[in-house]
Amino acid sequence: MELAGKGDLLSNLIKKAKQNERIIEEKEIWRICRTVGQGLKMLHAKNIVHKDIKPQNILMMDDSSVKVSKNKNTNHLFCSLILI
Length: 84
Fold this sequence. Notes:
The protein is elongated, with a radius of gyration of 13 Å. A hairpin with a 4-residue loop joins strand 1 and strand 2. The protein has one domain. The protein is an alpha+beta fold. The chain is 36% helix and 17% strand.
C-alpha cells in the first residue's frame, strides 16, 4: 500500500490557506482536474462508477502524481495517473 506523501487535496488547501500561501496555481488546478477526469474515464470504460469524487478522495503523491481513492479511511486506490 502506498502512502500519499502530500495527503489529500482538501488537507493541502486548508494547510496552505492557514499559512497564507497562494493556494494552488491555476495551471496546477487544471492538471489535477484533467488527471482526475482521465481516471474517471478509465473507470467508466470498465463500468465502474466512483460516486464520491471530492477533494478528500484526491490524494497528492510526493512524485507529483494524483491518485483517486474510494475512501480516505480505507486507502483503496482506484487509479493512479501521473500529471502531464
